[in-house]
Amino acid sequence: MSLCILSAGKTATLTVAAFTLSWTHSVERTRWEENWTVTPSGLQVVEARIKGSGAGMEPPEGAVLRDGWWVYAPRVGPQSRLALAASGATGDGWTLCTVQGCMELGRTAGETISLEPCEPLGSSQPR
């Protein structure tokens, strides 16, 4: 599978089966991380981690505290698209990591970035 990253009218393609998306909460300044897989049905979150808790960031039922992180498996079905927007309040954007390395997305406030599975056979066009 491939992941398409759409930003500023351009599409970048990563040939990956999984990625980690992380960011800093703009109010609590707490780190969040999510592990995702790219499937024919869409993007599927398989695990999430929150470094602490705070206003609007309570760990969900079933979360386990492991090495300072609240770890849980979100109960959400496959997503056809993830829309990411940076507030500009944290000084950084979203970090997307794969086995190929990491990249920062959406550092500029208001810049919206979409992540979605690409068409099969290596097409760089989103579904």
Q: Would you kindly provide a written description of the structure presented here, covering whatever features stand out?
A:
- By secondary structure, this protein is mainly beta.
- About 0% of the residues lie in helices and about 50% in strands.
- It has no helices and 11 strands.
- It has a 7-stranded antiparallel β-sheet, with no helix packed on it.
- A hairpin with a 2-residue loop joins strand 4 (about 30-40) and strand 5 (about 40-50).
- The chain is globular and about 35 Å long.
- The model has no long low-confidence stretch (mean pLDDT about 85).
Key traits:
4-stranded antiparallel β-sheet; 0% helix; 7-stranded antiparallel β-sheet; mainly beta; 127 residues; single chain
Provide a short characterization of the protein structure.
The chain is mainly β.
Helix content: under 10%
Number of strands: 11
H and E order:
EEEEEEEEEEE
State the secondary-structure class: mainly beta
Total helical elements: 0
- Residue fraction in strands: over 45%
Taking the alpha carbons of the first and last residues, their distance comes to 12 Å
Order of strands across the widest beta sheet?
6-7-5-4-3-9-10
Largest sheet: 7 strands, antiparallel
